[in-house]
Amino acid sequence: xxxxxxxxxxxxxxxxxxxxxxxxxxxxxxxxxxxxxxxxxxxxxxxxxxxxxxxxxxxxxxxxxxxxxxxxxxxxxxxxxxxxxxxxxxxxxxxxxxxxxxxxxxxxxxxxxxxxxxxxxxxxxx
Length: 126
Description:
CATH class: Alpha Beta
Number of domains: 1
Distance between the termini: 30 Å
Strand content: 25-35%
Oligomer: single chain
């Protein structure tokens, strides 16, 4: 069975750029800075991503975070809600978070996300 490309928009709003990685069906890229205003944008994108991952029966989704300078607690809450949804819906796919080890906030915040659902969230380093 050939994978069908996810139909994800590229969203550039409120300091965030969220979108698919060209040529990689199971990868998306987050860039910029997510302040409180970006939480609704991130939540909207993650809901689209979740529906597309289910529709395409993906086994994993990789989020490339190397260009994400920072996200605040409101944006982290949107990610927590997404991870919780994946975890409680029978873990249809794994979430790989690819971080930049030089960014201290990613090291601490992503470790917390992994602890919420260790069977769902995998941390990768660049």
